[in-house]
Amino acid sequence: MTTGEPGQQRTDRSPWNWLLVLPIVLPLLTFLYNADEPRLLGFPLFYWLQIAFIVVGVVTTTIVYRMTK
Question: Which residues cross the membrane (predicted)?
């Protein structure tokens, strides 16, 4: 891959990329959401924690993008 400047190679070996492992591994830890309580606005833990996982994914992707840009 190259950047817009000729003669300069782009590298994807930034340590910030390791942060992208978090939104992949976090939903795989089923013991985190294997419960009915607590409830948030009447929704069981499973449902609102899934939304939280999406937010974590968006935030980590944004951080990695900005730090490696």
Answer: 16-33, 45-65
